[in-house]
Design goal:
alpha/beta
Length: 221
């Protein structure tokens, strides 16, 4: 049998939260429109994850609302390390033992994802994500538009270009995760509902899993 290649989403899957929501809490802490902006960021995230909002446009819109700076990323990373999903923490040995077959494929940003997953044995070259663009003051002003993950159907484009040698299994909570399976590039899509359950996503799933424990059991690791 082909070796399994496991592609895992980051936001609301590897971690309990959407990282840009947390960055918003940090960046907008003293902003007079904090509550309204955070609510709008969360709304855009949910629409995008359900497949109801252009992903590229959602990135543009959220970054504009965030008003964030590079100097705030260390605090974000520290907070995300404390917000890792319960079943991720429980199965740290699984991640470390199988790290050569595990990849993080996220529409989030490598600057904060790589340091978080490194604690679980996943190396930076196994992290596929977007990258921020900064101005001379360190303000986050956009993202690298040459990376496929910044585009609509970006996960499809990325996986098509990587030519993984193995049987691909995708785990995630969002519609963009299902799209890899929908394009015929994966054997199975596991809708991950430990943190967030999206009916449009679970309706497309081969399996609905409440934790990484269930994925491990289903695949006889």
């Amino acid at each position: 049998m082909d070796k399994k290649i496991v592609l895992i989403d980051f936001d609301s899957t590897f971690t309990k939260v959407e990282a840009l929501d947390i960055l918003g809490e940090i960046a907008l802490e003293n902003h007079p429109e904090k509550d309204q902006r955070l609510q709008r960021i969360a709304e855009i995230t949910d629409l995008g994850m359900s497949g109801d909002y252009s992903f590229t446009q959602s990135l543009i819109d959220r970054i504009a609302i965030l008003d964030a700076n590079k100097s705030q990323l260390d605090e974000l990373i520290s907070r995300l390390k404390g917000l890792v999903s319960e079943s991720t923490k429980k199965n740290v040995d699984f991640f470390k033992k199988n790290a050569d077959q595990i990849y993080i494929v996220s529409s989030g940003f490598k600057e904060f994802i790589a340091p978080v997953v490194a604690d679980y044995g996943i190396s930076e070259d196994h992290v596929y994500a977007n990258k921020f663009e900064f101005d001379s003051k360190g303000d986050i002003i956009g993202f690298d538009k040459t990376i496929p993950l910044s585009e609509d159907q970006g996960k499809i484009k990325l996986v098509e270009g990587l030519n993984f040698d193995g049987e691909i299994h995708v785990i995630g909570d969002g519609y963009t995760d299902y799209e890899i399976r929908g394009a015929g590039l994966a054997k199975a899509f596991y809708a991950f509902i430990e943190n967030k359950e999206r009916p449009k996503v679970t309706a497309k799933a081969d399996y609905i899993i409440k934790s990484f424990d269930e994925f491990i059991e289903l695949n006889n690791y």
